Amino acid sequence: MTRQIVSPEQLDMQSPGRRDYWVALGHTSIWGSHLIPLTVIVGPQAKAGEGLVAFGGNHGNEYEGPVAIKHLLREIRTEDVLGRIVLVPVLNVAAFRVGTRESTGDDGFNLNRLFVEGAGTTPAMAGITHRIVAFIRQAIWPHVDISIDLHSGGEVARFTHWAVWYCQDDPAADARGEQMARWFGTQVVMGSRVGSPGGTSAGLFQDAVNRGKLAIATELGHGSAVDVRGVRFARQGVLAAAIHNSHLRGTIEPIGHHADGTQCLVRGAASVTAPYPGHYEPLVDCGEQVGKGQTVGLLHDFYRLDEEPFAVTADAAGIVVAQAWGARVEQGQQIMMIGEIIG
Ligand SMILES: [Zn+2]
Fold it and tell me: Which class would CATH give 46-262?
């Protein structure tokens, strides 16, 4: 298979068939380009403006999404594609190249904070990370109505596997989003109204929502590793969304917590912020249920060795959905997130 190197303007997202691209965005330093992998498969029933896109590698040290999508590149047969499927295994190639959350080797930005007005189209925001935003807006958003953004915790947090959809005040759209999230098979499923949990309103998830897409995001592992169940959930969620929205022919069976009825529908994740820098000791695992007022972790200050540690307590009963990953935490860092179980 030859992967063609093209500019964003040269992408053919419309013609029937499969095309494998490296999308070239000019390099800010060397004589050359950053090459973003993108595969588009268009079937006979594709409609203008409708399609599913799955992104891995929004952050450069989160690997379940890239691995799952890399497998799907070979698994999905062109003859089975009915609508439009766009696969981007590694979105922020600048961050992925150096294995960090931000584009550390280039402009240093966190892609998932840059979906702001003018990104990549004004001289002040012309670095590679801003231009990835412009590329998505110009070349991908016009052709899809479903966006799946596959994240993991990187070095920041450890997570209960979760899938989140963007809640709107439209029961039909919410039911569709919830079902799409449930099909990943993760333990936690969550509806969000304010951007991605732990993220900001300037993330990819929110940008998709702002443009009327059905947006799904996930957290599927942590520690810059490859989580066995996380990869499975990523693959399943993308395939299920493709099949159930008539982009892909086939049938699919539920897996994981979706299959065995142990999935938790969660709302209003409450966070605990570190009041000072220190070393975090979790007292419970992610995915455990905790009671209101329960001490769920301790923040140690090794410069005040003889003082009691700060007790991280649960504001409400619920399920632990995220905790700090590394022992060392910064002042102001969210070290614990508990979700209220509503179904
Ligand atoms: Zn991420």
Answer: alpha beta
